[in-house]
Each structure stands twice: as C-alpha cells, then as structure tokens.
Design a protein that fits this description.
Rossmann fold, 5-stranded parallel beta sheet, 7 helices, 5 strands, 172 residues, binds nicotinamide-adenine-dinucleotide, alpha/beta
Length: 172
C-alpha cells in the first residue's frame, strides 16, 4: 500500500512527524505532498516549497526513516477545486489512499472515489504550524514546538527574521 499525506508544513512540526510515523506503520510507502507549493514569504506561508522540502527531508534523516520508501513532491494549488484531485494525481506517484483532516481535502478526494483516513491529532493545541508562526512572531519559545531538524533549518535561513518582517507589512 502506498499512502499520500498532503500538507503545507509551514513549518513542519511534531504533529506532522507523528502522523508520518503512524502512516509508515500502516503502509509500505508514503508520498508527502507539499501543498501550496507556489506560496512563500507570506504570513500563512513563510517558507518556499524548496525550503519545506529540505526541512521535511532533514527530519526524516534525523529520525532515521527509510528514505527509499518516501517520496516528497511539491504540488501547486489549482484555482478550481473540482479539478484539484486530478491535478494532484498528475504530479505524484500512484497512491492507494490519502491521510488528511482538512475538510476540503477530504471532500474532494472522497468525491473522486478515494479512501480518506483521518489522522489522530497529536497535542493539536501545542503542535500546530499556526502556533509556531505566532510564537515566533511574539518572541516566545517556539523552538520547543518543533523537532530539532526544523529548528536548525529555520535558524539557518533566518526564518525568524523573515516571519517578523513579513508580518510588519499590512499587505499580505
Ligand atoms: P497543514 O500543514 O496545516 O496540515 C497537514 C495535515 O497535518 C492536516 O491533515 C492536519 O490536520 C494534520 N496535522 C496538523 N497538526 C497536527 C497534529 N498536531 N497532529 C496530527 N495531525 C496534524 O496543511 P493543510 O492546510 O491541511 O494542507 C492542505 C493543502 O491542500 C494546502 O496546501 C491546500 O492549499 C491544498 N489544497 C488545494 C486545493 C486547490 O488547489 N484547489 C484544494 C484543497 C486543498
């Protein structure tokens, strides 16, 4: 079985990591689709698809996952929801089922005949990308909210400054 897990991963946190760990227990292979790949340098999507790719890969390496079983594929959004599943399918290797809690993702894949599995939430109030971005912005202890590989990468690309600067604008 090959599973698809789609998210924006802005940024990748402990919740995402636990979901991946569980999916790999239940399936032989996993495709991690980086959604909204065209987005970066905005309040909701501060990191590029390439940066998110590197962050995810660094986490997988750090956790010693078998990389031969995992594909990471950036997927841009499509401004027509009814065609989005076909668009995703055209961009990623074949898959048997999809893991998501996002209501729009679930309904679109269900309508297309796919089995959609809810992922158990891991400390959702603590482990959420929105909370990480807000904590960075407020000068809080964001480092405890993300795995060490995510923390190191954000520090290396001056991600904290980027998030603060992006949020100082009233335009995005
Ligand atoms: P996300 O990174 O916020 O979340 C990814 C997944 O991880 C979600 O299923 C979420 O529930 C889960 N998750 C988050 N925190 C968790 C935790 N603590 N424990 C367990 N699970 C946790 O990404 P997202 O916003 O759900 O990504 C969906 C993507 O699909 C977006 O890029 C969106 O634009 C794209 N999309 C595009 C279209 C279109 O282009 N027409 C339509 C639908 C969806």
């Amino acid at each position: 079985m090959r599973a698809l897990y789609i998210g924006r991963f802005q940024p990748f946190h402990f919740g995402h990591l636990e979901v991946i760990r569980n999916i790999l227990i239940e399936n032989d292979e996993l495709i991690i689709a980086i959604g909204s790949a065209q987005e970066s340098h905005t309040k909701k999507n501060p990191f590029t698809a390439g940066e998110r790719f590197e962050i995810i890969r660094a986490n997988l390496v750090h956790e010693k996952f078998d990389l031969s079983k995992i594909y990471i594929v950036p997927v841009e959004d499509l401004n027509r929801n009814s065609l989005w599943v076909a668009h995703v399918r055209s961009m990623v290797p074949r898959f048997d089922k999809i893991y998501s809690n996002e209501p729009l993702v679930k309904i679109l894949f269900n309508d297309a005949g796919y089995s959609v599995v809810n992922t158990p939430l891991f400390s959702r109030s603590e482990y959420s990308s929105t909370k990480v971005r807000e904590t960075i912005l407020n000068g809080g202890d964001w480092e405890k909210l993300v795995p060490v590989a995510t923390r190191d990468y954000i520090l290396r690309v001056n991600g904290v400054d980027r998030i603060v600067h992006i949020n100082s604008s009233d335009k995005c």
